[in-house]
Design brief:
The chain has 165 residues and is α/β, with parallel strands linked by helices. The protein has a domain of 115 residues. It is built from 4 helices and 7 strands. Strands 1, 2, 3, 4, 5, 6 and 7 form a 7-stranded mixed sheet that branches. The longest helix is centred in the last third of the chain and has 15 residues.
Length: 165
């Protein structure tokens, strides 16, 4: 199985234990998603329209937060890439940029659809991603699944009224 364009470079960064803030996935064009955010802890891959997603190795995406920038000529290609990232890639979260807004994606019947929360503007995306990561850590979701959340334990202790016995 083959990785998308620039996938080997992302794999090497992860293997070197580099922490990545976000993986941008450009869909349909070489320049899709290029220059969206200027951060050294950002990585980008490109999924062109002729890449067969069923034969694509997305193992390096596991646990990452991903932003899909769909500039494909093919109807539904961005949704198909999002679904592959959520299933085969096991991404922590997948977001999709359409126009000037970003929607978090989820799987419904095997298809990637917007989660239904209010979309955020591109400029507000970093803050929205930070809030989503905090929520997921708090409730043990995504990469925090199965781990006890110190934030949740502190909240529960506070709700119980501390150690007043």
């Amino acid at each position: 199985m083959k990785r998308p364009a620039y996938g080997n470079a992302v794999f090497a960064r992860r293997r070197a234990r580099e922490v990545l803030w976000l993986l941008v996935v450009g869909v349909g064009r070489w320049k899709a998603g290029d220059g969206l955010f200027a951060r050294p802890d950002l990585a980008r891959i490109v999924v062109l329209d002729d890449l067969d997603l069923t034969l694509t190795n997305l193992d390096f995406v596991a646990g990452l937060d991903v932003l899909v920038v769909d500039e494909s000529e093919l109807v539904g290609r961005g949704a198909a890439v999002s679904a592959a990232l959520l299933t085969a890639g096991r991404a922590n979260t997948v977001w999709r940029l359409s126009g000037v807004q970003v929607d978090e994606m989820t799987l419904l019947g095997g298809e990637a659809v917007p989660l239904g929360l209010s979309p955020v503007r591109v400029g507000d995306f970093p803050a929205a991603l930070a809030r989503q990561r905090e929520r997921m850590a708090l409730f043990g979701q995504g990469i925090w699944q199965g781990r006890e959340s110190p934030q949740l334990a502190a909240m529960m202790e506070q709700l119980r009224g501390g150690n007043d016995e």
